[in-house]
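Cross-check.
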Amino acid sequence: MFGSKKLSWNSAPLAELLRLSWPICVSMLSYSAMTLADTVFVGRLGKASLAGMGLAGTLAFAAVVFGIGLLRGVKVVVSQAVGAGREDRVGQYAASGILIAAVMGLSVLVFGQLLVLAVPLLAASAEASSIGVDYLFVRLLGAPLLFLFCTTRETSYGLGDTRSPMVASLLANVLNIALDYVFIVELATGASGAAWATLVATVLEVSVLLVLTRAPGFRQLKKAGRYLRAVLRVGIPTGIQFAIEIGAFTLLTVLIASMSETEMAAHQIALSVIHFAFLPYVAISEAASVMVGQAVGADRDELVPRVARYALFTSLSYALFCTALLIFEGDTIAGLFGVDSEVAAVTTNLLYLAALFQLGDACNIVARGVLRGAGDVKWSASVCVTIAWLVQPPLTWYFGYHLNMGAFGGWLAIVVEIFVGAGILWWRLSVGGWRPSARAARRDLEI
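Predicted model, tokenized:
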């Protein structure tokens, strides 16, 4: 009977949260290591190379972020189906995700290349522009594979299998780092070598994951459209949220890139470092989203606040460590990238500022994951998008240009956005505003 399945982790939610989140955390930290390796190798080519790669990398992510958010819907509906005891829906949801991945991949291949034409208009110098054009062109070629990987990964997460994506990501990232050395150092291909390394590594990553998971969904492609609406119901608001938020962040990056190569190079280095703090929060949030989805599907809404509290406690514990590390070792970390003293000084200031928003970032990211798992995506997406655009661009201009604070001013705008968003999202959780969405998700499973 619908909603009657007993959840195995009911008596020990923290243990289940940790079981799910640590492989995701390892996957994401390995991804951070890949980004960090790219930055280290390219950073030694000069700040123009680093500035060009940083701008192009942001534009590449802007091109694919809507599809990534759209495919998050696969994880939510799969986890809700598991909680409801409707495993028969899993293959059909996965097939819907594959269909979405194919459409989004082709769209980025065709239309994403228009972003390449924008690079010369946004870069701070002709050299950074040329490097950015080459890097972005290659990165966009991997979009179809990236979306296929995201679909398979989200299905695995929804089923409670977080280890298979971890194995695939670890192998891919080891290959990426090795190829960075081969392409950039031995073959002297410049920053574009990092893009080629990422493309080849993505091929390995998706291939390994498809083998480990036995390619869920491919056997039911003929039924891909049957439950597409359920995936899109959750995925479209999330995709729109991701796209518009990254639009605000892209504008922030463009503003910083136009300031100088020094400011943009420092921004890129600081982002690479902050991934080590940011992505574990995302891992815990993803695990919480799966558990909340299962609780909603099983009609156990009383478990949602418990999962949220455990996820918040775990994230804040890690956030305190990151805060201390950035405060006491920020200058040492900045000096590891082999850049000149001017770039290192700007980077150090950004890392000190990043230390201030770690606790707020943990709260913000966990709340998003919990609300997404409950199916409460439209309200939270609207709030997050509104805050991002009301805060980031105007404050970046005011602090960065008007007060002449440079990249530091842009990061100060991020601090304001994070804390405002965290407060509003946790208010939504505490008053139970997500419950109508949870009931709607259960009605969809009954059809």
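The mean pLDDT is 88. The longest helix spans residues 47-83. Passed to J.P. for a second look.
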